[in-house]
Design a protein that fits this description.
The protein has a single domain, classed as Small Protein B, Chain: A, CATH 2.40.280.10. The chain is α+β, with helices and mostly antiparallel strands. It is globular and about 60 Å long. Strands 1-6-7-2-5-4-3 form a 7-stranded antiparallel sheet. The protein contains 4 helices and 7 strands; from the N terminus they run E-H-E-H-E-E-E-H-E-E-H.
């Protein structure tokens, strides 16, 4: 089972503490699929919102497919997510009752279908972000010293 990652939302992993992840399908138009095949997508400011009992991906930017003439799509249109009812209920309760948020983590191809990995997340505070940067820099320094010692 091979997956080909189109875009990874690194900013979401830096700004949020991911509690649980889910895999969701996407409802796309033809020109969106062609644009995704060219690895064009931005998830930087995207989030998941609910309308009734359905989840939607908002502010995900899939640019216009240039080879398409009149049949193009709106780049930041609202896209429906395909999830099971139990997953929808779990995400909805986490968002409403526990005051968490739901963000897309990455978009990828799996068996020819476009999938989105979404995560239930809690926002990090400024100190948590600084601690993450410190630990990352310490790990890099350790790796450098190990390479030099060889």
């Amino acid at each position: 089972m091979s997956i080909k990652i189109i875009n990874d939302n690194k900013k979401a992993r830096f700004d949020f503490e991911i509690i649980e992840t889910f895999e969701a399908g996407l409802v796309l138009t033809g020109s969106e699929v062609k644009s995704l095949r060219q690895n064009q997508c931005t998830l930087k400011d995207a989030y998941v919102a609910f309308r009734g009992h359905e989840a939607y991906l908002q502010k995900a930017h899939i640019p216009i497919y240039l080879a398409s003439s009149y049949n193009n799509h709106e780049p930041e249109r609202v896209r429906k997510l395909l999830l099971h009812d139990t997953e929808l209920a779990k995400i909805y309760t986490a968002i409403t009752e526990k005051s968490l948020t739901c963000v897309p983590l990455k978009i990828y191809w799996k068996k020819g279908f476009a999938k989105v990995e979404i995560g239930i997340a809690r926002g990090k505070k400024k100190g948590d972000k600084r601690q993450a940067v410190k630990s990352r820099e310490a790990d890099r320094e350790i790796q450098r010293s190990l390479r030099k010692s060889r």
